[in-house]
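Folding Task

Wanted — backbone structure
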Amino acid sequence: MKGGGEAVPVSPFAAALRAAMRASGLTLHGVRTRLLRRGISVSVATLSTWQTGTHQPERARSLRAVAALEEVLDLRERTLTGALGPPRPRGRRAGTRYDGLPHADAVSDIVERICPSDRAPARVLCAQEEVVLTGAGLLGHVGTRVVAEARADGVDRCFAVSYAGPGYDLDRITAFATRHCRVGRVRRDYDCGLVGAEFLLDRHHRAGDAFVVEYGFDVGQRFGECEYFRAFSDPIGLYTVEVRFDGDRLPVRCYRFDADRPGEGRTERELVLSGSGTAVVAAENAESSVCGIRWEWE
């Protein structure tokens, strides 16, 4: 005899997908392969969250994948799409939006997976980032130092979402804690190239407390892009990013760029690379915008 609490309800969509999977005899990898033959890419991890009911497909691309699943699993039309409930409310809490970020919906989803919705809010006063590129063209790590102020009692965690982009092995990207925190939950979105991490603070902070936390991501993979940027969803008093080029290979030009949103028109200004091979940018009162550094090798 086993004891336990209340059973966790399973959505009609998850139940229908799970039953169809069992009837088909296909594994998650098998389903993914058949979707790829139809030109639709869905990760095994995403399929798993759909059939367990952890997450529900909502974005247009995901809904197209669900329609294709009906064909792959030899189901009648709308067996799965008709079982989907209404979309969940977006955002972590009132006033939190990710509209200005790349893959905004996916960022919202991954934040929901790593942090509780009722977490106490904090205001970032200052954020400093160090991006290290090795002489072999590898992105070594991205380190972040945050100074923040608790806006309510009980602030005990923060989170970070890193956009790796195509070509990166997300399983090799690991979160690390440097000061005043430890790594909590880490989740990945293989479709959009996102790695989200929760950082648990070393104490609970009361409203008005200022605190410092340092963390980062180890990447250790070839850096295909020639730029690094941060997109802001909440106001930050001061943001600085330092890109350090280790080794003998240095870029011939570096530029600071700013934009209202990723992918929109930019303003650029040339930067002077320091003697130690470092480019630095600072932005005051950054809000709903993008700030970064771009470089040219030749």
User: Anything to note?
Assistant: The chain has two domains: 12-83, 104-296. The helical segments are 12-24, 28-37, 44-52, 60-72, 104-114. The mean pLDDT is 82.
